[in-house]
Amino acid sequence: MLGLQTASQTPQNMMRTGECVLNLPTVHQVDAVDRLARLTGSREIPNFKKQLGYDYEPSKFEVAGLTPIPSRTVAAPRALECPIQLEAVLAERHDIMADDPQVAGLLSAFEVRITRVHVLPSLLMEGHENRIDPAKWQPLIMNFQKFYGVSNVEAAPSRLAQIEESKYRMPDVDRARVAAPQGVC
Question: How many degrees, rounded to 5, is the angle at CA 50 between CA 13 and CA 22?
C-alpha cells in the first residue's frame, strides 16, 4: 500500500499506466533523494506546489545522479544505484477521506502487486536465497519530513522470527520468481 497525493506526477503515471517501480535507496543515497525533494515531472505545477517552491524537471534521474535501467515486467525504469527495486502493477486505488469535500480525490492509497524483486546479492542473508539480512540493509526512511536510517542492531528478539518465513509467503512471490535471471530474488 502506497499513500500518495493524487495531484503528484507519480500517482498520475500509475493511474495512466497501471505500473510503477519502487526504487528503495539506502541511507548513503540521501543526497540523491533530497535533490528530488521539490521537483515534479508535471509541466503544469499545481498552485499549492508552486507555493511550496516546486519546480518542473523532466530529467529527474539525471538531477539525482541515478542511472535508469530497463525493468523486466513493467515499462517504468529502475534506478541502477538502488540496491532494492520492486517492479509492480496497480491492483486498486482507494480514495482517502472521500467523504470530505475539501479533500475528496486528493489523497489515495494505491494497492500494488509486486511482479519482480531485484535485490543486491550482498544484502541477502547467508544460507537464504530469498531473505534480506536486516543487519545489512540500511534503508533511507523519511519520518515527519526528516531523513533517518535504521540501526543494524536488533532491539530485541521476536517470537515471530521463530516461524519459518515461507509459511507467510503469498503465491505472488513464486509467480514473480518464475524465469527470474541469476542474482534476482
Answer: 30
- Condensed to tens digits (0 to 9), the pLDDT of residues 55-113 reads 999 999 999 999 999 999 999 999 999 999 999 999 999 999 889 888 888 899 999 99
Nearest to 174 by CA among 109, 129, 121: 129
Based on the structure, what is the number of domains in the chain? 1
Judge whether 185 lies within some domain: no
Q: Report the 10 Å Cβ neighbour count for 116.
A: 22
Per DSSP, the three-state class of 45 is coil
Q: What is the pTM of this model?
A: 0.84
Q: Is residue 182 part of a domain?
A: no
Q: Determine the structural domain holding residue 119 and report its residue range.
A: 2-177
Residue 108: give its domain's CATH number: 2.30.110.10
Closest Cα partner for 13 from 38, 35, 48, 40?
Answer: 40
